[in-house]
């Protein structure tokens, strides 16, 4: 049975709250980290969730991944658990990107960049 609009909104609010907490923690702990965003189809959440950790520059991203990649998986796992989602973070659900890369490839249009990433994963919106 498909979830209703009210339940969908509740789920989204819960996820945003917990991911915001993860984002604020990362901003405090990891130099060059800018923000966290996500995409998901709530009717197939586990299969479509993508959390994208965004850095200011490509160099910031490389340094953070070399030194603290596991921390991003841990923060994502905590956020999902606190939002009551039974999804284990993996290379399929977590991406790393930078403002610099988005500007270069998509003129700073994050919506376009994230949509293209979803399509590349086979998660086209119908």
Q: How many helix segments?
A: 5
Largest sheet: 3 strands, mixed
Average pLDDT reading: 87
Structural class: alpha+beta
Tell me the series of helices and strands, N- to C-terminal: HEHEHEHH
Give a structural overview.
The protein has helices spanning 5-29, 45-48, 58-82, 99-106, 110-120, and strands at 33-39, 50-55, 94-98. With 126 residues, the chain is of the alpha+beta class. It has one domain. Strands 1-2-3 form a three-stranded mixed beta sheet. The longest helix has 25 residues, at 5-29. It is globular and about 40 Å long. The relative contact order is 0.17.
List the SSEs and their pairings.
Elements: H1 5-29, E1 33-39, H2 45-48, E2 50-55, H3 58-82, E3 94-98, H4 99-106, H5 110-120
Parallel strand pairs: 2-3
Antiparallel strand pairs: 1-2
Helix pairs in contact: 1-3
Write a compact overview of the structure shown:
With 126 residues, this protein is an alpha+beta fold.
Highlighted features:
alpha+beta; globular; disordered C terminus; three-stranded mixed sheet; 126 residues
